[in-house]
Amino acid sequence: MSSWTTWLAERTNDIASSHRAQLGLTAAVALGIGVSATIGLQGARRWYNIHDLKDSIPDLESPHDVEKINNFGGAEPVEHTDQRDDGRSAALARRARLGDYDEDLILEQLARNRVFLTDDGLGKLRNAFVIVVGCGGVGSHAAAALARSGCGKLRLIDFDQVTLSSLNRHAVATLADVGTPKVVCLQRRLEQIVPWTHFDSRNQLFDAKSAEKQLEPWSDGQGPDFVIDAIDNIDSKVALLHYCHKNSIKVVSSMGAGCKSDPTRVFIGDISASTEDPLSRSTRRKLRLLGVKDGIPVVFSSEKTGPGKAQLLPLPEEEFAKGSVGELGVLPDFRVRILPVLGTMPAVFGLCVANHVMLDITGYPHDYLPSKARDKMYDGILAQVQGLEERVARHLGDDPVGLRIPVTADDVGYLIEEVWKGRSVISGLASRLALTRWRQPAGEWIDHYSPGQKADRLQLDDLVCMTKDEMLRHEKEVLREGRKPEDLYEKSVCDAVERRRAEERAFRAQR
């Protein structure tokens, strides 16, 4: 032990007597202290950052200055006095709308549109008044495109506010806009791009009762040149489209962009031609009940769902357990499930809508509006139903002369397209379609008014869609021989028929 102590003392004396060794030891100690200090500083910085972030999130019970929510679920406008850029932009916009803006600068900004649409077309667009109802993913992109292209007057209508989940698809919203009305956000951002455009922003819910007021002329008496429907609630959408159709106001409607991912399958066409879209199907169905079957251009996707593709997310069981599902939404009858939306698709729909409006207003050629052109097919099927009812009447011992059925070609189109989705309920085939009674008529099914005047009591839910070959077999075995459909078809087919018939009865009750 004494030898170890002696050796250590000798080495210490050597270090003390060596200047180089002292410098090395000092550097090593300094390095260690520096590393420790750096690590400690980084740890402290992380700790403070985390606590600053936590402190910035208010408790649910603590007071805050986030915009108040009105009784529509939308945010009340708040003056942002501390945002100098927004203030300067708003002031510039006010001056520009009063004429204090160089016309040459406006034409330079619109130069590409000018050479495309010509001076005459651009002039029409700059004098146009367009109303955008719904300023979310689709509506914000449509409004932004119209404003950037030179549209002179824009009325923006939406009851909702910008949320964090809006930012994946909204055209102009930023984190700073979360909690503000969508119409206020949209106007504030677009004024920074096109200060000469006139805006009328209305933080309101659109419905049938407010349609006349919300679609009223501009303050100078100019009526709307076009209305854009970018609503995702079916009842509000139907109310808007029906009002525009009834009052001869040009309107274009965006169907569902949710669960869609293929931009090559996005089309612009008449509402009667839109397919593979639940929102479009429900809208068409309700409009038909109001007497509107076509004449409304829509943007829709023909993309079909499939394995691995997005689906409407189901409502969690715990939400059902809370009581009435209708009470879970922001507003009555508004969807409470999360709709999967790829952020690019609403933009595609919105830009297509804006493109259609610009071409129509400026008179630019656009012959892309397709139609199913199936009226002749519906007339043929109607004649087939008439003939079938006459044969059944004759077989059951009644004179078919003068028999009239209470079904029109429009009813045939409604049944084929909306109720039976354009396919045979038996085989799923979509060609050579026909309509036939599902069961053999029983009891008094013909009203006799006078000689040669008879009325068939046929109801729309009595008719099912089959191919012509399937209809002939069904006529022989069910309508003539009296067999029950349950004895002839699989249970899945019979269940599908009853389900579709129940849907038709429910829709008919709304007429």
TrEMBL record:
Pfam hit, one: ThiF
Membrane topology (UniProt): Multi-pass membrane protein
Any one GO CC term of the record: mitochondrial outer membrane
The keyword Transferase is assigned to this record: no
Coiled coil: none
Keywords, alphabetical: ATP-binding, Ligase, Membrane, Mitochondrion, Mitochondrion outer membrane, Nucleotide-binding, Transmembrane, Transmembrane helix
Top-level division of the source organism's lineage: Eukaryota
Protein's cellular compartments: Mitochondrion outer membrane
GO biological process per UniProt: cyclic threonylcarbamoyladenosine biosynthetic process
GO function terms (MF aspect): ATP binding; tRNA threonylcarbamoyladenosine dehydratase; ubiquitin-like modifier activating enzyme activity
Limits of the THIF-type NAD/FAD binding fold domain: 112-368
PANTHER family named among the record's database cross-references: TRNA THREONYLCARBAMOYLADENOSINE DEHYDRATASE (PTHR43267), TRNA THREONYLCARBAMOYLADENOSINE DEHYDRATASE 1-RELATED (PTHR43267:SF2)
Family per record: Belongs to the HesA/MoeB/ThiF family.
Annotated function: Catalyzes the ATP-dependent dehydration of threonylcarbamoyladenosine at position 37 (t(6)A37) to form cyclic t(6)A37 (ct(6)A37) in tRNAs that read codons beginning with adenine.
Name this polypeptide is given: THIF-type NAD/FAD binding fold domain-containing protein
